[in-house]
Amino acid sequence: MIIVMKPGTPRSRNLLDISAVPVLRTLTHLPIMVDPSHGTGKAELVPAMAKAAIAAGADALMIEVHPNPAKALSDGPQSLTPQGYANLMQDINLVSQVFGRFPEQYTFSNSSKITYSQKHVSIA
Predict the structure, then answer these.
(1) I need a labelling partner for 9 at 20 to 30 A (CA). Which of 17, 53, 58, 99 fits?
(2) How many domains, the chain?
(3) Contact 20, 6 (CB under 8 A)
(4) Any idea what the CATH number is for the domain that residue 55 is in?
(5) In this structure, how many other beta carbons lie within 10 angstroms of the beta carbon of residue 6?
């Protein structure tokens, strides 16, 4: 599978151009993935840009998650905590419903158990 990914502009790693998503949609049939973590470089900007990417037509997101971003060996400043990621996924569900993006929705509650391993984050 080939995925077109938009991490940032060629001149700036941390300048995410969301307007590229609908342009890419007209140029390719391939899935479009947006990386708001590298695209912004700041964890506090990731949620807004992730929601904007879905609203603009992105098919997938790549989001950095770490249980303790301050102690991450790399990319800590742009990493969400597992709870921050769970909160964002709730918001993404709402945004995707509004824009009719994904028919399958995922449910997270405040009591969801979040577990972390080096390979993935799971929310139960």
Answers:
(1) 99
(2) 1
(3) yes
(4) 3.20.20.70
(5) 23
